[in-house]
Each structure stands twice: as structure tokens, then as C-alpha cells.
Amino acid sequence: MIGSSNHQNHSDPRRADRERRYKAPVINSQVPSPGEDMTPDYTNILGMIFSMCGLMMRLKWCAWVALYCSCISFANSKVNDDTKQILSSFMLSISAVVMSYLQNPQPMTPPWSSVFG
């Protein structure tokens, strides 16, 4: 028994003095890591800003841009992201589109159409 365990130690290439136990890194949700993609957060904020502009100023193109930004934010979100915030931004942008068309059902004329038209 003693001879077989001694033989095992000589053929084992691992070094016991170099072994370190794995410790999972501490993740702080407030501070992004250098490699983290911030696209969902930025598009979520843009979506909320454009939603408010669409609701307050009755600008249909702002409401549509808000919906576009919310879709990008939803598509790029991770599983562990705050789903309530993303969903509320998405619902806010949908309500901006619906409210802008309920107040004025005519087709949208973007402000840049007079420049190119």
C-alpha cells in the first residue's frame, strides 16, 4: 500500500505546492466590468427619453424611435439584467406610439421630409 501510493506521487505531474482553490469573482452590479457591453443600458435610456418626448410633445417619430430603441435594448439584454426596467421601457414606448396616434390619427410626417422633398 505504501509503495503504490509513493509510486503514484512520482508519476503525478501536478505540484501540490502550486494548487490554489478557485474563488468566484465578486460581481458588483453598480460598477460595470471593462469588457461588459453597455448597449442595452444606453438604448434603454434613449428609449425612455424618446418615449417622454413622444408623449409630451406629441411627436410620432420620437415614439417610433423609442420603440426601436426599446426593441434593441430587449434584444441585447442578458438573462441577469433588470427585466422590470426593460419591460417598463418597452411598455412606455408602446404607449407613446399608441397615444400619439390616438391624439392625431393622420400619417406621420417626419420633420426631415421637407428637406429632402
Automatic annotation (TrEMBL):
Compartments where located: Membrane
Key word Electron transport present: no
GO CC, alphabetical: endoplasmic reticulum membrane
GO molecular function terms noted in the UniProt entry: protein folding chaperone
Classification via InterPro entries: ASTER
Sequence segments annotated as region (Disordered): 1-35
Pfam families: ASTER
A biological-process GO annotation: protein insertion into ER membrane
Membrane-crossing residue ranges in chain numbering: 45-74, 86-103
Ranges of biased composition (kind: Basic and acidic residues): 9-22
UniProt keyword annotations, A-Z: Membrane, Transmembrane, Transmembrane helix
Family affiliation: Belongs to the Asterix family.
Protein name: Protein Asterix
Species, as recorded: Frankliniella occidentalis
Gene expressing this chain: LOC113206495
